[in-house]
């Protein structure tokens, strides 16, 4: 039985197929990379998994349960957390309050939520900016806040959407460390990433899509040598 | 059957005027993303301009050429000095621009009341109550003329939006403000022109309405309500939708008054509003994808 | 701790007020002030905290007032029961609208409340047999003295502020603000945004309805133009909310105090000062001005809306740091 599975997922926007028949399976405890050129349908896939878009057809199965018709907040409660490619900090709240709001998804008492939030903040290394307003954070901090918030909802499966984009080399290393640490703490991860170096280093398996369709799947090495993947990224001349 | 046809004709003629009101609102909605709750009040100001000119012996249709530029200017000033500055204001309130238009509407109404008092004025002309007959169906001449002029303005507006540089800039700003900025569109200037145009169009509607209606300070509110019902019916920001919305509201009011009761005029608009929210969120735009 | 002390101190001052001040005019103003604290706090919860601006608070206020009045005229039940029932009637009026409008983003809710306001005013006018139409509802006041009303109003103000304070400092409050800041992010954090918007609206409508019922009991007379008034109730509620401080617990109190004062300034022509000056100086111009000011309170409100949104978008409490800075700069410049 599959831990998490996406089956023949299709999404049309008007007459345009953003995702057209993508199927993949993720096993518990792995870091699963999702790659593809701009506009290939990665974020749309994420949006369907987390309930922002309804698939035109196809299914999303999480622990043997169909989830593609559930509203977003229900999916979060089931244990699927996500971050946004275009970060969405709750601007006029402090970092701490952002994370407390997230922690409330698993408890009702203030004290408990504060403790959970503190733990998540410490885990993700945001303690030094805990009381800063979220909108005054630099981009690296905002990306990290996205992860911290998602972690505070106590996810079993975490969807990371380009959390490394726009980071400098040092921040990149920190981000890779953090993602590994999250996996080691027992959370399964699906990650979208453009920076090849990052995704090749941390992923256990990679699924490549282009124009909404699967073009390759396998270990990082296999995918990196795949003719279609190289073509999609660099053009036919290099394939 | 005659009653039905008569009601139909009255509804469509009224709908033409409503379309003109709705297009002005829709333009503003599309470009600024806000509902202009001073729209009817701007029309009211135009009606008083018509009224004053009428006292001086000017025909309401001629006063179009005074009221429209005047309201265009007023609209530009409002956008430039009251609405655009709000973009830079850091506030928690998400609807502060809409709220601003409410305030503007109040100020306009009260200033007019201050000058002209609350009395009902009429701009009656020789053709105000004249009718002609087609079979058994009577057509109000004034409403007929205003219908034709309203259509002419609507068509002109379309050509303006499609053919001219400013029109294209307005459409670009409506579709994607950030992209328009990158393409070199001065969106600040475009919003000012758009609000001016919207005000000018509703001013035209005011001039056309004046001969067949009463003029009083509180006339703005109900027409603001109509304008926003039309806009919501048409789908926020859709010009073609606004025409359909205008005609639909005109018909609904006309049939409601004939077959239900005159008292429920305001409730009819409201019912449409709720029905659209329930069954057709996004309005006609959703059906036609215009 | 310090905040609690200040709150207790304010409460104590308010509790002793009618014992010290015997003048009915000032007692009357204070009752209005306390009523506006209730309405302003409620508006602030749904608009300031949850980010769903209500343009038609009079819909809830009027529902509460009419619930109390109709109870008394039709069922011969004391209008005081209206305090509880009026609140629930307002909730029953508000929630279906919220349920429809909250599914959509943008200004739908604001417009729908405005429309609701208008429709209820027309409905109350048309349904003469039931509501008395334009004539309105007149009930016998329970007390001659203003003191009992004062303490009821004070209790309601205190309870409404306490309940809202409690809500915004617990889980729902965090959820409300999250929704205001970013609805997509809120959904991803497991927040049922539709439900929590409804909750916020429910609480706000309840307290506004209670305030309406209080108004019915205190004034003894209502008609559609008064309690469903767009300017005197809906816009006033927004002004109370904004002037004091959007998204702050104590802002509405400051706002209510200032706005009731402003309203009274207009109504009384600066407490009769203008009229007095006109008589003393024998100046006709001043007399005309005095009349103009008393007649122009809607104009004044309109100008206030425009100015406040431009200059004090977060209210006196919310923009306090900004105000202090500019005042301080002026001092150093001198």
What does this structure look like?
The complex is a heterotrimer of chains A (239), B (290) and C (334). Chain A has 239 residues and is an alpha/beta fold. Chain A has nine helices and ten strands. In chain A, α6 links the parallel β7 (157-161) and β8. In chain A, α3 (95-103) crosses α4. With 290 residues, chain B is mainly α. Helix content of chain B is 73%, strand content 4%. In chain B, strands 1-4 form a two-stranded antiparallel sheet. A two-stranded antiparallel sheet of chain B has the order 2-3. The model of chain B has no long low-confidence stretch (mean pLDDT 84). Chain C is mainly α. Chain C folds into two domains: 2-228, no CATH class; 250-334, no CATH class. Chains in contact: A-C, B-C. Chain B binds chain C through residues 34-35, 37, 82, 85-86, 89-96, 98-100, 102-107, 109-111, 114, 221, 225, 228, 232, 236, 263-264, 266-267, 270, 273-274, 277-278, 281, and chain C through 47-48, 51, 53, 55, 100-101, 103-104, 106-108, 110-112, 114-115, 118-119, 122-123, 126, 180, 230-231, 235, 238, 242, 246-247, 292, 296, 298-299, 301-306, 309-310, 313-314, 318.
Question: Could you list some keywords that capture this structure?
Answer:
heterotrimer, A: 239 residues, six-stranded mixed β-sheet, four-stranded antiparallel β-sheet, 10 strands, C: 334 residues, mainly alpha, two-stranded antiparallel sheet
- Per CATH, the class of chain A reads Alpha Beta
Q: Average pLDDT value of chain A?
A: 90
Rg from Cα of chain B: 19 Å
Chain pair forming the biggest interface: B-C, 42 and 45 residues
**Which architecture name of chain A does CATH use?**
3-Layer(aba) Sandwich
Low-confidence blocks of residues of chain B: none
Largest sheet strand order of chain B = 1-4
Distance between the termini of chain A: 36 Å
Oligomer: heterotrimer
- Structural class call of chain A reads alpha/beta
Number of domains of chain A: 1
Tell me the distance between the termini of chain B: 34 Å
Beta strand % of chain B:
under 5%
Poorly predicted parts of chain A: none
Topology as H/E string of chain A? EEEHEEHEHHHEHEHEEHH
Count structural domains of chain B. Answer: 1
